[in-house]
Amino acid sequence: MTSVNQSASTATSQDLSQVRFPEGFVWGTATASYQVEGAVHEDGRGPSIWDTFAHTPGRILGGDTGDIADDHYHRYPEDISLMADLGITHYRFSLAWPRIQPEGRGQLNAAGVDFYSRLVDGLLERGIQPWVTLYHWDLPQPLEDAGGWPARDTAERFAEYAAAIHDRLGDRVPDWTTLNEPWCSAFLGYASGVHAPGRTEGPAALRAAHHLLLGHGLAVRALREQGARDVGITVNLYPVDPVTDSPADRDAARRIDGLMNRVFLEPLLRGSYPDDLLADLAPVVDFDHVRDGDLATINAPLDFLGVNYYTRHVVRAGTRPAEPRPTNWVGSEDVEFVRRGIPQTAMGWEIDPDGLYETLTRVWREYGPLPLYVTENGAAFDDRLDADGRVRDEDRRSYLERHFAAAQRALAEGVDLRGYFVWSLLDNFEWAFGYSRRFGLVHVDYETQARTLKDSGRWFAEITRANGL
Ligand code: FCB
Question: In the predicted model, is pLDDT for residue 208 greater than 60?
């Protein structure tokens, strides 16, 4: 934990032309089911919490929904060709649980399984390895109706689903990620309510976090029993810096680091919740939902940890009592988040490549040795499709270049970083922001579903082939 003034001076100038990655380094792109698939009523798919949420007026910017999204459900062959053009070795995508088990339990929906089976075969035909995420936020609505992630049973249902679908795809899919960003599922979903299911119950968010972790642990066990080869989880991590070195600001940073990063890293990789986090939360949450043996289950050995990185948090101790409104920061609502006034993306996220270097080296130093992958990194900018059919997204190219270089610095210091997935292959449904934020290497015209490789995509294709900048 360095204060902002210290960390600014650690930025090094690197000769980017010298940036090379190890042989066999994984280059990929990532997407998620609800963000790209569309076809929400087809082939027996049931509703997910995101269908319900997106169709609730006022929840999504512009009233957008994932009903059609990128129509990837029908256009996946074209999208696989685009991936081949990009020269990627791996494609990270998620399975829509409600396509596979519309009720969230029991019998599998054959047509849903078949879609993913065809997708996997299509990827393999083009020499692209499928990298499956089991859960990227689209919980079957019937499970939310039964209590959602704050209910322990959801963890059991998740493990059952994991085993059932691995049984169908495991012969062709080597890499299995249980959850994507459980922080978002728990805190955006149940504390601030800006994501589905939109509940604002701070203590329930902590129960959700625990049952997500438990579901992960139970799923790892179930997958291993079936002989799964590579099993891991993806977390979204942020460096959290105090704005000054004052004890109060440092304490604010410690609290947010606990609620953002360590609440997941420590149970997963050390088998316990951090004592300081439990103490911070004691006034608002009792942890009586944690049963004997849960933490050992959660602490199951992993083959890899996926890290999603976008930006850094800079915080200061609150100077006045927090307003009584729902936030993500249960028990630490008074902490203030500080903007540094540095360049930012269209999400309003400050561009901070050093933060990626710090995150990777921190995980390695404090929790390693463990193979790491950057499972998401990328940026939204206000792209424009020019009359000549090009998208001149130099800002995105530069963003990625600086983050690739930061990852390479971590590698050079011995971090076992095995690969890098750019978010995202396609412009897509960006959750509460709908279609207003474009992250793709490929531009999507939502009227016609026409795909256009952006300049950043052309550049990325050179990187994947040269395995360096
Ligand atoms: C991450 C999500 C991903 C995408 C990016 C921008 O938090 O995992 O689905 O929305 O942010």
Answer: yes
- 421 within domain boundaries: yes
Query: What secondary structure letter does DSSP report for 153?
Result: H
The verdict on whether 181 is a catalytic residue reads yes
Residue 12: predicted pLDDT: 53
**CATH number of the domain bearing residue 120:** 3.20.20.80
Contacts of 400 (CB under 8 A, 6+ apart): 377, 378, 379, 422, 456, 459, 460
Residue 434 burial by Cβ neighbours in a 10 Å radius (0-12, 13-18, 19+): middle
Residue 66 to residue 44: CA distance in whole angstroms = 17
Residue 321 tokens read as 């009592």
Task: Report which ligand 1 atom has the smallest distance to the Cα of 347.
Answer: 6
- CA 465/CA 469 separation, integer angstroms: 10
pLDDT at residue 315 in the model: 98
pLDDT in tens, 418-438: 999 999 999 999 999 999 999
Asked if residue 163 lies in contact with residue 97, where contact means CB atoms within 8 angstroms, the answer is no
Which residue, chain included where needed, has tokens 């020019």?
386
Average pLDDT over residues 16-27: 91
Query: Is ligand 1 within 6 A of the CB of residue 187?
Result: no
Q: Does residue 462 lie in a domain region?
A: yes
247 by Cβ neighbours in 10 Å (0-12 / 13-18 / 19+) ranks as: exposed
11-15, 68-72, 261-265: segment of lowest average pLDDT: 11-15
Residue 173 pLDDT grade (very low, low, confident, very high; cuts 50, 70, 90): very high
Q: Which atom of ligand 1 is nearest to the CA of 32?
A: 9
431 Cβ closer than 6 Å to some ligand 1 atom: yes
Length of the chain: 469
Residue 217 lies in a domain: yes
pTM: 0.97
In this prediction, residue 229 has a pLDDT band, given cuts at 50, 70 and 90, of confident
Neighbour count for residue 293 (Cβ, 10 Å): 10
Q: Which two tokens stand for residue 469?
A: 């900048």
Q: How far apart are CA 8 and CA 10, in angstroms?
A: 6
Positions of E strands within 139-226: 175-180
Burial of 113 (0-12, 13-18, 19+ CB in 10 A): buried
Total number of domains constituting the chain: 1
Which has more confidence, 367 or 12? 367
Domain that holds residue 337: 16-466
